[in-house]
Amino acid sequence: MNSSARQAVLLAVVSAVLQVLVFPSFSYGALAWICVAPLMYGLCLRELSLRAAFWVGYLCGVLWYGGTCFWIYHTMHLYGGLPKSVSVGIVVLFCLYLGLYHGLFALLLARTAERASTRTALLAAPFLWVAVELARYHVTGFPWDLLGTAAVDNLGVAPLARWTGVYGLSFMIAVVNAAFAWAWYRRTMLNLVGALLLAGLLQTGTLYGPPASPTTHAATLVQQNVPINPPGTWTADYFDRLIADLANMSHAPKDGAEPKLIIWPESPSPFYVTDVKFRSWMSTLAKNEKSYVIAGSLGEGKSEREIYNSAVFVDPQGEFVGRYDKNRLVPFGEYVPYKDLLFFAQKLTREVSEFSRGNHRNTFDLGVGKAGVFICYESIFPDEVRQFARNGATVFVNISNDGWYGPYGAPGQHLNMARMRAIENDRWVLRATNTGITASIDPYGRVVARIDRDVRATLDAPYAHVQRLTFYTRFGDWFAYLCAIISVVTMFLPPRRANQ
C-alpha cells in the first residue's frame, strides 16, 4: 500500500466517524458540513487507483453503517432469538452489503477525477452522492439516514425539502463538503475561508425560528409501553387487563375543536381486527369519547395465511369504517426475502409472523380533513409518504413500535425521518409509538409535544389540517432523478488530454 492509499484509508475512517456523529444518538448536526469532505479529498489523490478508491469508499460505508445501525444486533439477538455470534454476523453482513453504496460513490468520483480533473470531480460529487442515495432507495429499499436528514433541525435550509425532498438537502450538504475538499486539495487560505463562510452561513439556519404553527385540533396519542415478550406471553387474563387499562387511559383531549381523535400505536399486542373483544373495546371507546379512533392492529385477509400489519379506523358512532394495510414491510422482521435461500432466517419472524403486503394508500375521513396513516418503517420512504398527501391527507399519522430497536440510535433516527416527511409535505405528523418517541410534529419538523421513552402515558397532541400541496408532494423525486441523469452524463465525459 503506497502512501496515498494509506492516507486515503485514514481519511475514510475519519469521514466515517464524523458521519456517525452527525446522526442520533450523537446528533452533532453541524458536522454534516464537513463529514464527507475527508473522504472526497482522499479520493482525489493522484496515486490512488480506481480499485483502491472503491475499497476506500467501501471501508467508509461499512464503518458508517456499523456506527449508525448497530441496533440491528439488539433486534436479532433479543427478539429474533439468535445467538450473539449469529446476531453479530448478521450486522456485519448488513454493513458489508450497504457499504457497497459508499464504494460506488467513491468509484464514480475517482473515475471522474481520472478522466476529467479534480475540480470537475468535486463539482460532480453532489450529483453523484444524490444519485447513489436514490439507488439505495430503489435497489436495496433502505433509505435510512439519508444525508439530508441531518438538516432537520436547521429551519433556515430544511424547507428546501418542500421543493426537492430530502435529496435537495443531501445535495446542499454535499456541495459544502466538496468545497472543503477542494480547499484542502488546493491548499489555499482563500478557498478554505470561502468554505468556512458558506458552512457558517448555512449553519445559522439553526438560529432561525419561524412563528409557532397555528393549531386548531388536538389528538390523544397513547404510548402503550407494552413489552414485546410479556410475562406469561399473552394469556387471556393479561390481554383483558391490558386492553382495559389502555382504554381507560384513552380520554379525548378537552382542548381543540371537534371532532376528537385518539390514536393507538403499532403494538406487539395481538389486537386482531376480527377479534370480538378488541372490536367491542374500540367501539365503546369511540362512542364514550365521541371521538374517531385510529389503532394499530392485525388485519386478516381472504385466507387464514393472509395477516396484515394494519391500522383500523373507528368513527364516533363506534363503527369500523376503514383499514389501512402496511405497504412496506421490514425485511427479516415482517417477512423473509429469498426464504428458500435463507432458510436459516425463518426464526427471525417468530415474534411477528409472516405478514402480507398491502397495496393501497387510502386515507381516513375525519370530517374536517383526512388522515394518512403510515406504519413504522414506511416513514423512511419519502416518495411513498408524499402519496398520502396527494390522495387527500391533510394530516399525517405515523404509528410505530420502536421497542424492537433498543434504546440507542434508532428511535431518534426514526423520529428525525418522520420529521423530514412533515417538512417535505408541509403537514402535521401525529406520531404514536409503543415505547417512544411519541410526538406531535409541526410542518417545520419541530417537535411541539412529546412523551419520554419507556413509560405508559398519553399525550395531548395539538395539530391542524393543511390543505395545500408542496412542489415535492406534487412531483416527487424529480430532483434526485435529475442528479442521476447528470451523473450518468458525467460518466461519458471525454478523457482529459495528457497535458491538462
Task: Explain the overall architecture.
- With 500 residues, the protein is of the alpha/beta class.
- The protein folds into 2 domains: 3-209 and 478-490; 217-463, Carbon-nitrogen hydrolase (Nitrilase/N-carbamoyl-D-aminoacid amidohydrolase).
- It is built from 15 helices and 12 strands.
- It has helices at residues 3-22, 37-43, 50-68, 72-79, 84-115, 118-140, 161-164, 166-186, 189-203, 236-249, 276-289, 382-390, 410-425, 471-475, 478-490, and strands spanning 217-223, 260-264, 291-300, 307-314, 320-325, 363-365, 370-375, 395-400, 429-433, 438-441, 447-451, 457-463.
- The strands form 2 sheets. A 6-stranded mixed beta sheet has the order 5-4-3-2-1-12, with helices on one face. A 6-stranded mixed beta sheet has the order 6-7-8-9-10-11, covered by helices on one side.
- It is globular, with a radius of gyration of 24 Å.
List the helices and strands and how they pair.
Blueprint lengths: L2 H20 L14 H7 L6 H19 L3 H8 L4 H32 L2 H23 L20 H4 L1 H21 L2 H15 L13 E7 L12 H14 L10 E5 L11 H14 L1 E10 L6 E8 L5 E6 L37 E3 L4 E6 L6 H9 L4 E6 L9 H16 L3 E5 L4 E4 L5 E5 L5 E7 L7 H5 L2 H13 L10
Parallel strand pairs: 1-2, 2-3, 7-8, 8-9
Antiparallel strand pairs: 1-12, 3-4, 4-5, 6-7, 9-10, 10-11
